[in-house]
């Protein structure tokens, strides 16, 4: 009888821990980001390398303090990828990161397909928004926009443990 009781307690603890971890990963750490017109959707100018805001509407965003790459956002714009390509810096090899399933407006799989097929273009929004992390902004032909954070070359080196090197800015001290 004691063995059965112990087994039941272990199973209940394991299930509770699993449910708790799932909740924390999918819901617990995320919070909605308030819109800041003129600051939310910016692209890096190809000529001045300064961030410039673009016109947008219907902005939605989520973020989490637990990781610098958990930011995701959606918006709509009247600008098209070919118009933006003339003035703004393209992102090299953009790979959209997935978002929690409950954040409906952001679909990383369809966005990745649109980027591969040329129906969307990605641009650098802000370099080093966090150390080693760039903000990437993608816009589709139908005016839907998506934003996510991606590790840049310095971030990949810093977080995998390799020597960062002189080409990267010094890491801020906490």
Question: Which tags fit this structure?
Answer:
six-stranded antiparallel sheet
Fold and architecture overview:
This protein is an alpha+beta fold and 174 residues long. Helices cover 30% and strands 28% of the residues. The chain is built from four helices and eight strands. The chain has helices spanning 2-28, 81-87, 108-117, 153-160; strands spanning 30-32, 42-44, 51-53, 57-64, 72-76, 120-130, 133-140, 144-151. A six-stranded antiparallel beta sheet has the order 1-4-5-8-7-6, sandwiched between helices. A two-stranded antiparallel ribbon has the order 2-3. The N and C termini lie far apart (53 Å).
Q: Secondary structure elements and their pairing?
A:
Layout: H1 2-28, E1 30-32, E2 42-44, E3 51-53, E4 57-64, E5 72-76, H2 81-87, H3 108-117, E6 120-130, E7 133-140, E8 144-151, H4 153-160
Antiparallel strand pairs: 1-4, 2-3, 4-5, 5-8, 6-7, 7-8
Short description:
The chain has helices spanning 2-28, 81-87, 108-117, 153-160, and strands at residues 30-32, 42-44, 51-53, 57-64, 72-76, 120-130, 133-140, 144-151.
Q: Give the SSE string.
A: HEEEEEHHEEEH
Helix/strand class? alpha+beta
Q: Provide the low-confidence segments as ranges.
A: none
Strand arrangement within the widest β-sheet reads 1-4-5-8-7-6
**Shape, please?**
globular
């Amino acid at each position: 009888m004691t063995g059965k009781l112990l087994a039941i307690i272990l199973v209940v603890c394991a299930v509770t821990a699993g449910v708790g971890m799932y909740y924390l990963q999918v819901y617990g750490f995320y919070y909605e980001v308030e819109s800041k017109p003129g600051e939310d959707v910016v692209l890096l100018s190809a000529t001045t390398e300064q961030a410039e805001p673009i016109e947008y509407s219907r902005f939605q965003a989520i973020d989490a303090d637990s990781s610098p790459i958990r930011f995701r956002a959606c918006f709509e714009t009247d600008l098209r990828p070919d118009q933006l390509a003339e003035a703004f810096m393209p992102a090299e090899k953009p790979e959209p990161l997935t978002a929690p399933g409950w954040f409906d407006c952001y679909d990383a799989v369809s966005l990745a397909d649109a980027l591969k097929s040329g129906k969307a273009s990605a641009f650098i929004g802000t370099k080093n928004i966090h150390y080693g992390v760039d903000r990437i902004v993608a816009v589709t032909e139908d005016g839907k926009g998506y934003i996510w954070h991606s590790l840049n070359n310095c971030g990949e080196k810093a977080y995998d443990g390799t020597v960062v090197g002189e080409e990267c800015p010094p890491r801020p001290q906490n």
